Amino acid sequence: MHKALQGAVYVAVAAIAWGMGGVVASVLYRTSGIGPLAVSFWRAAFGIAVLAIVQSARRKSVRQNHKVIVVIGIGLAVYQSAYYLSIAQAGVAVGTVATLGACPVMVALGGRLFLRERLAARTVLAIGIAVAGLALLVSGGAVGPHPVAGLLWALGSAAGYATVTLVAREYAYHIGQDDIATTLKTFAVAAVCLLPFAVAEGIFPTAHAEMAFVWLLFLGIVPTAVAYTLFFVGLRTVTASVAAILVLLEPVSALAMAVGLLGERLTLSAILGTALLLAAVVTTIRGSQMRRIQRPAPHPG
């Protein structure tokens, strides 16, 4: 398989796993009494535990630039927690469309300005299709109590995601070829950042604790340890803007799980929005398949 296409597939699989995590998190909010910041912390903590076991068994040690690791870890903490806060303040519809709509735009512009990545016409078209699809997908949702504050949190979340993507892409040499170690260390930073806020919110489940921790373990393994490792692998061979579009598979995955597991019904706008998102992703993957990424490898220092 062509490396660029393989990287695109890895990022797409990561996005699907993240969508599964969103549905599980929503179940936890309703059944366990645990809040979004606490869920984010436990997700990171269980992911760290799983990755530490794997890394210990591998007995592999790599040298990495810890400054880059810290920046990525802070970015992870910001964009995950800010997204949940956006939903709480502005509602699911506004929070989702603002965050996921801003992500590919910020990443594409950042990639063009800071990484000198060529912004292909295919990528611009895919971004436009994706934003239209997101608007349809979340249309009709309720607006939360503080939409302006929610919008600001959404933009903060998108900026955090853009930072993670651009830094991981630019400094792939400095974080090395061991993507398990990268995921482990960046989430260790994220967990430290999230811990005080999780404690303030209420860190332990207040109902159905045993089942809650089963779901939290799932979040640590699939949408965290596995998904982010694949994401960092994929970023070696796809541009930042392409990765941002592929990540839009996350709401499609979440919608599919909501229909299949939670019995939610699809509206016409949701069907049309999903179709547009899939069209954007297919357009992007075909672009990755048709051309090689022409970008010199980063140099040390």
UniProtKB/TrEMBL annotation:
Organism: Rhizocola hellebori
Keyword Lipoprotein among record annotations: no
Ranges for domain EamA: 7-138, 149-284
Similarity comment text for this entry: Belongs to the EamA transporter family.
Locations listed in the record: Cell membrane
Organism lineage string: Bacteria, Bacillati, Actinomycetota, Actinomycetes, Micromonosporales
Chief location bin: membrane
SUPFAM superfamilies per record: Multidrug resistance efflux transporter EmrE
GO cellular component: plasma membrane
Transmembrane segments: 7-28, 34-54, 66-85, 91-111, 123-144, 150-168, 180-200, 212-235, 242-262, 268-285
Keywords noted in UniProt: Cell membrane, Membrane, Transmembrane, Transmembrane helix
Entry protein name: Membrane protein
Entry annotated with the keyword Membrane: yes
Bilayer topology: Multi-pass membrane protein
